[in-house]
C-alpha cells in the first residue's frame, strides 16, 4: 500500500539557538547543523557545541542512535539531498533549526525509513517542492506529505538487510579513508611543523627553519586558476558540457561530486587539482577527480613541480580553519593576490620527494576506496526500487 510519511513518522525540526553561546569544546553537546550532514553520515569534525550546563529544556531535540536527520535549506538541499542516520558510536547531540529529525512509529522500521529518505524518488520530490526565492527550503509538513509504498514489516526487514550489506562496506571504506587521511596529515605535521623529519638531528635551524629550506609564496609553488562563472543560462543538470562548481555545495569528505554542468567554458580545473573556496567559507579544500568548469567561488591549485600531495597537506595545514584569510562586511572573501601571497615552507628537494612518495601512495589508496564507495552506492540505489516493486526477490 502507498502511505504518507507523516502517517508513520514523527518529523521534528530543531529550535534556534543563541549562536553567541556556541563553543568549540568537545566536552559540550555537539550540534547537528546542515553543514554537519554528509551523504549518509555525520561530519562531526565540523561541529559547534552547546554548553552542557544549558542542555536542560532541549530534551525534545536530543538525538540518539538510529535517528535520521535531514537538512532543510540551502545549500544542502540544492546540492543534492543531505541526510544521515546516526550510528551507535555517534555521540549524543542536539538538533538545530532547519534540520529535521525523523523517527519511525509502529508499522515502519527505522532502517527501512533510512532507505526511503536516501532514495532517488525522495530526492526528486524535495527538488520539486522546495520554496523560497532567496533561501530555498522545505518544511516539515512537506516532508510528511511524501508518499511511498509500504511493504509488510517482514519485507521491510529483508530489504533493509540486503541494502545494509552495501552500507557496511561503504562505512568500512569511509573509516579506512579517514584513517589514511589522518596518517598523511600527521606525517606532514611531524616533518614540516614539528621539524622531526628523517635526519633532523643533523640539520641546523636557521632563522626559524631548517637549513636548506625556503619560505615560498603559494604562487611560487603552484599555478593558481581563479574561477569565473558562466551565465546561468548555460547551467544544466542533464550532463551537457563539463561539471560546474562555484562553491562548496558539492564538496565531499575529500572529492567534489557533480550535480550541475555547464555548456559554456570559462575557467578550467584539471583532474587532480586542489579546489579552495575563495568566498565564504574561505579556505575549505576539496579535490576534483575530473576536468571541471570553475565558478567564481573557487580557485584551482596545481603544483608547479608535480608534488601535488605535498601541496595538498601543506594547504590543509595552512588553512586549518575557515576564513583565516579574506575580508568582507557580511561574508568573507579573498582575492587572487591575497591567495598568491600566502607563505609556505618548502623543504629540501630530497625530503620533499620522500614525503611525496609516501603521501601520494596514501592518496592513491584514498582515491581507489572512494571509487569503490561510489560504485557501491550506485549499486545500492539501483537495487532499492527493484526490491520495492518485487523485480528482485528478497
Main attributes?
alpha+beta; 24 strands; 21% strand; 394 residues; five-stranded mixed β-sheet
Alpha-beta content class:
alpha+beta
Strand count, sense and closure of the main sheet?
Answer: 5 strands, mixed
Number of helices: 9
- Number-wise, the strands total 24
Shape: globular
Low-pLDDT stretches = none
- Round the mean pLDDT to the nearest integer and report it: 92
Q: First CA to last CA: what distance? A: 18 Å
Strands of the biggest beta sheet: in what spatial order? 2-10-7-8-4
Strand content: 15-25%
Helix content: 25-40%
Q: Would you write up a description of this structure?
A:
- The chain is of the alpha+beta class and 394 residues long.
- The protein is 32% helix and 21% strand.
- The strands form 7 sheets. It has a 5-stranded mixed sheet with strand order 2-10-7-8-4.
- A hairpin with a 2-residue loop joins strand 12 and strand 13.
- Helix 5 runs antiparallel to helix 9.
- The relative contact order is 0.12.
- The mean pLDDT is 92.
Secondary-structure blueprint of this entry?
Elements lengths: L1 E3 H4 E5 L15 E4 L6 E2 L8 E2 L11 E2 L4 E4 L11 E3 L7 E3 L3 E6 L5 H8 L2 H10 L10 H5 L2 E3 L3 H40 L12 E2 L2 E2 L3 E4 H4 E5 L8 E2 L5 E4 L15 E2 L4 E3 L4 E4 L7 E3 L4 E3 L3 E6 L4 H11 L17 H5 L2 E4 L2 H40 L6
Parallel strand pairs: 3-9, 4-8, 17-22
Antiparallel strand pairs: 1-11, 2-10, 3-5, 6-9, 7-8, 7-10, 12-13, 14-24, 15-23, 16-18, 17-18, 19-22, 20-21, 20-23
Helix pairs in contact: 5-7, 5-9
